[in-house]
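Dear colleagues,

I hope this message finds you well. In preparation for our joint manuscript, I am sending the Histidine kinase/HSP90-like ATPase domain-containing protein (Brevifollis gellanilyticus) sequence together with its predicted structure, so that both groups work from identical material. I would be grateful if you could confirm receipt.
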Amino acid sequence: MAQTTLTRAIDIRTLPYERSLEKLPVDLTATVGFVESGSTVFVQDETAGTHLHFRPFRNNLRPGDRVRIQGTTTAGLYFPGVDVTQVQVLGHETPPVAVPATYDDLSTGRYHYQRVVVVGLGRTLAALDENKSILRVSMGSRVIEVRVDAPLDSAPGVIDSRLRITALAAGGINDRRQLVFPYLRVADWDDVEVMEAAAPPESLPVTSVAALLRFGEADALSHRVRIRGTVLASFPDGRVFLRDSTPPPPPREVPKDASPEPPQSPSIAIQLTTAASVMPGHRIEVIGFPIMAGFSASLADAQVLTQTPDTAPAAEQVMLKELQDGSHDADLVQLTTPAVLNDFFRTSDGYELRFTSNGIPIRAFLLQTNAPDLEIGSSCLLAGICLIESSTDKGFRSQPERASLLLRNLQDIQVLSTAPFWTARRLVMAIAILGGVILLTLFWITQQRRQISRLQSKIAHQATLDERQRIAREFHDTLEQELAGLSLRLDAATTRPLEDKARTLLETSRSLVSRIQSEARNLVSDLRDTEHPVTLPESLQLMAERVQHDQCEIVLDLHPVPAIAAPVAHHLRMMAQEATTNAIKHAKASRITVHLAESSGQLILSIADNGGGFDTSTQTHGKPGHFGCIGIRERCRKIGAEAHWQSEHGKGTTVTIALPLPA
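The corresponding structure tokens are as follows:
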């Protein structure tokens, strides 16, 4: 789509941000209202105002020039403007007409980057740099900053004068394209007109503090007032607290049935334009602008006219209730009730101290960089400037809500008694240390128990190993030797002429002795083989090789299973050996299947044979001379397993051992 050329300032000004980035063509005829520099110029036409940006710089434009601008739109900081490609000066005329504006007009951006005229009262004047000045002007209850591109020495008498200022409306813009605060731009002091000159400070009547900002006081909200009194405290930031020496006006009429109100403090808080060397006790005269700051009237942008040294004033003795009822706002007071220091911490201005008096919290502020040399828990008497920090409305009356003390120095804290040794902080520290000692002791005990347990396990293992070796030696040196001797005798007996029945008996006895010898050797081997323990599948394979019979086939169906402890594996192997031996010896089985697997978190070991079978309900619980099944049950109980027999006459027997595996 073809882009429409923008020819009015209002169309550029109200262009959406996204559209301004499209570099729309501009052909605008307007009048220069303000020149910021060679790169930025502000112009107005009959509809509104906008801003121009030149690259390269152009320094030959001045307010009143009638120009034709060609270029493209740019986003700007606050609203869109124009990137100029060509400019043509059509002539020169008076600058654009300035429109009257209020503070609200300026703060909402209604006339931003346009010429406006405002009326206000000059408050302060200061140099910005060598050739620029800053004038602060009150517009009703608000104060606006006027930045003048002219040196301070050429300024007219603006302080406390009613001024009419013609300026460019501007302001500070944040990164979100929002107007943070408004201010005015003035090219020269010629645009600042003094409508009503300020009265000489010496001609102002001395006013009572109690009369400030009351109804009916002429110009009480605007012009400066003159106050005389004694300095109570002075701070480096320009704050001065003054006790008024002028008699107050007559008190208000009090209804007969109402209780009399407490007398109000004759003190006032004053903010000097520049810090002055006034000391407590000096009798001074000051002039300043009365404003409502906090709970009571105070003076802002004040100046000291005269000062005379005198005796430092005494603090008013007040109770805690009187401190908080507002009657001593801005006055120098001393609490009659001791307060206990609970805590203190650093702030941006100094230190904040937290006290408690009769269960009521009190905040005090000490304006110094060094930490106060005070112990938490100390009982103190406090003195300082009473400050009403906040208030609340009850009906048509404003009542104080919270008060604090502004300490002049550390001497305003009189320590009555230091904190007891067992303060809350020290008690907590002691408990923490004791808890740490207990934890370390428990840790040490735990480590010792683990060490003892390891030593006990090691000793038990060594004792078991020694006992196994002793039993193995005894088996080898006694039973196995005796069996070897018996075997030799039987061998010798079979060489002699014997009857067939006797020979058969001798050969059967010799075979039995050979089997006993084999079992004895296997037992000795198991007792001594502790250095290289084998896994359960390996031990079952060894077992099958040892009990292999000529008339019985042993089939191994072994699947991978998790590693288990050596004693548990030994019991499982011995149970498998017992079941296999029973199948060969009693069931006359010709085929035995040993199955090992893991299923549902259990290790399953089963020995199935095709022998004659038996009655499992009566014969697995033992009978005289037969203890194999009882031994299997006892071994299961020892390792936490369960054994189950399934058998039918003529259909074989299956022994199943289920061992739960650890998670």
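For the figure legend, we might mention the following. The mean pLDDT is 86. DSSP finds ten helices and 30 strands in the chain.

With kind regards,
E.M.
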